[in-house]
Amino acid sequence: xxxxxRIPPCTPASVPVPPPVAPGGRQVGxxxxxxxxxxxxxxxxxxxxxxxxxVRRCCSQCGEELGRIKADDGPAYFTVLIAGHVAVxxxxxxxxxxxxxxxxxxxxxxxxxxxxxxxxLPRVKGGVIGLMWALGLKGDEVQGDVERHx
Length: 150
Hints:
Layout: H1 28-36, E1 49-50, E2 54-55, H2 74-98, H3 102-135, H4 146-149
Antiparallel strand pairs: 1-2
């Protein structure tokens, strides 16, 4: 039987972290804002992301475990929603103002949407991670008895 690799628990660094301001809970807005900046939702100093979309196992500054939070498809959904609400009004305004030909308009729109999504996605994922952390969610929660009863 192969031995299982034991991953040590996250240990906090020497940087003290102030307790949450809200009594008995975490500040949701602050956690989301820190996540949007790709920072740890707890301390705001350490990075929460590694690479393009990878979530760090734990914060290098405060030791908060972040790798257990699974955001799944939420960040992609919100990113496309935001990008669509930015791009569609611009496209409609350009159509009403200049009446450009369809092919170049679609080409510019697709490239623009791709670039916008590419830049937004890691930040939105950080924001969703911050929200989930503030609410104490891990991403594996089940509502009701859906899985047991089919």
